[in-house]
Amino acid sequence: MTMSSPELYCPDKSRKKCREGKSACKTAALHLPLAHETGEGGYLVCRACMHIITSTTEKIEINGSHIHGFTNPHGLYFDLGCFRHAPGCGYSKESSYEFTWFSGYAWRIAVCRTCYTHLGWLFTSGASRFNGLILNKLMAWDAPGVQPSQRHDL
Questions:
Q1: 9 and 57 in a common domain
Q2: In this model, does residue 41 exceed pLDDT 60?
Q3: Is the pLDDT of residue 33 over 80?
Q4: What pLDDT, on a 0 to 100 scale, did the predictor assign at position 7?
Q5: CA atoms of 67 and 61, how far apart (whole Å)
Q6: Confidence of residue 17 (pLDDT cuts 50, 70, 90)
Q7: How far is CA 88 from the centre of its chain?
């Protein structure tokens, strides 16, 4: 399954109309919470393979906000959530300051360690670092008693 699978997404970006039953969406029953729709204490997993990526307790604010919206040079729009740590991610070797969305930070591509789906970017500046993860590529998962270390190598 790829992230663009139409079976998982409603054309209503916020899915508000879908949840209220006012949408023409035929897949409402399949919708799972997006990363920004979950409360504290759960996990965020890769939508493609269910691998645990991070915890909602890792949410942080950068430049005064947890969620940021950006368009890349190719015209693709992303809603990013900022997270202190994302142990379920692997990163590209090369970093770049080119077209960075956070001034002074270099970026590296972040992927799921299990299925290699692109999940966002690791931003670094000196000793400071954080993950900017694409929110619609993650979903909430509340699994009492299951720690991320039980799902992958840290």
A1: no
A2: no
A3: no
A4: 30
A5: 8
A6: low
A7: 11
Q: What is the pLDDT of residues 89-148, one digit of tens each?
A: 999 999 999 999 999 999 999 999 999 999 999 999 999 999 999 999 999 887 655 554
Say if CB 18 and CB 27 are below 8 A apart: no
Q: Assess whether 23 and 58 both reside in one domain.
A: no
Nearest to 59 by CA among 42, 77, 78: 42
Tokens describing residue 106: 């270099």
Kindly give, in sequence order, each residue whose CB lies less than 8 Å from that of residue 71, ignoring residues fewer than 6 positions away: 77, 78
**Strand ranges (E), the chain:** 43-46, 52-55, 67-71, 77-83, 89-91, 106-112, 118-125, 128-134, 138-141
CA gap 6, 26 in Å, rounded: 10
The CATH number covering residue 88 comes to: 2.170.150.20
